[in-house]
Amino acid sequence: MLELRHLETLTAIREGGSLVEAADRLHVTQSALSHQLRELESRLGLQLLNRRTRPVRFTTAGLRILALADEVLPQMRSTERELKRLAAGQTGRLHLAIECHSCFQWLMPTLDVFRGQWPEVEMDLSAGFSFAPLPALLRGDLDLVITSDPIAMEAVRYVPLFRYELVLAVARDSTLAAARFVRPQQLAEETLITYPVERERLDVFTAFLDPALVEPAAQRTAELTPMMIQLVASGRGVAALPNWALTEYLSQKLIATCRLGEEGVWRTLYAAVRVEEEEAAYIQDFLATAREHCFRDLSGIRRPR
Length: 305
Known about the structure:
Distance between the termini: 36 Å
CATH class of the largest domain: Alpha Beta
InterPro entries: LysR_HTH_N, LysR_subst-bd, MetR_PBP2, WH-like_DNA-bd_sf, WH_DNA-bd_sf
Keywords: Activator, Amino-acid biosynthesis, Cytoplasm, DNA-binding, Methionine biosynthesis, Repressor, Transcription, Transcription regulation
CATH architecture of the largest domain: 3-Layer(aba) Sandwich
Order of helices and strands: HHHEEHEHEHEEEEHEHEHEEH
Strand content: 15-25%
Protein name: HTH-type transcriptional regulator MetR
Number of domains: 2
Structural class: alpha/beta
Subcellular location: Cytoplasm
Helix content: 40-55%
Family: Belongs to the LysR transcriptional regulatory family.
Shape: globular
CATH topology of the largest domain: D-Maltodextrin-Binding Protein, domain 2
């Protein structure tokens, strides 16, 4: 009576908290998901959800099926990965570089899981802060680059991971802390704290300040996100950072944030791979693992368009 799709459906509802979010995760319509759920409840003669609560709550029967899903689905995924490794010849190489300093927050846990799933794949990680990683990808020195600045290249495919909002971190006692959003002209009076990379690789310039022909009063750099946050918290400048990278500091009430412009500045994070390598089983599994971790652990991100 129970099928794998039923286990996946209930798991998606638990993770999403609603039928709408679960349908989005499963790439089906909400009506199709509701029909599948009603059909299963009819088969079992049991109600699995209390649909009147937000988020939805599972009945005892629903929780029992979820417990089964937690046992079966990981085993299924493990077996699928094992089969993919066999089909891929059990060997491969994944040399990565990242152009996003704050990406370490989600990338390191992803790599830890991936190593356990693909122990035969040779791995290496570089920070693309002091060199241009995309030419290295074309040369074959790298196999995957995490970037938010895709450059059209015939031999490179950009796989979207997630969308995020770039927000302005300010001191809690700053006059900007109470603002819902800031205009570019307001940063003409501020010290802008950035990572030590070229201006054309900083979204706060390319997507916000440069189009308005605005320059900050001053600019200083810091290599690590915690260092930037300490500078911001002590009133020595402001910093434009991904919304998900600031969740911890906001919960600790170290800083405040406001949007860049009334509509906000949204960017997409991509994984760049060579076209001929895109379908490699271990690369596909790395991308799936990365998305799984990001949408489970990061706040404020959206699915790519």
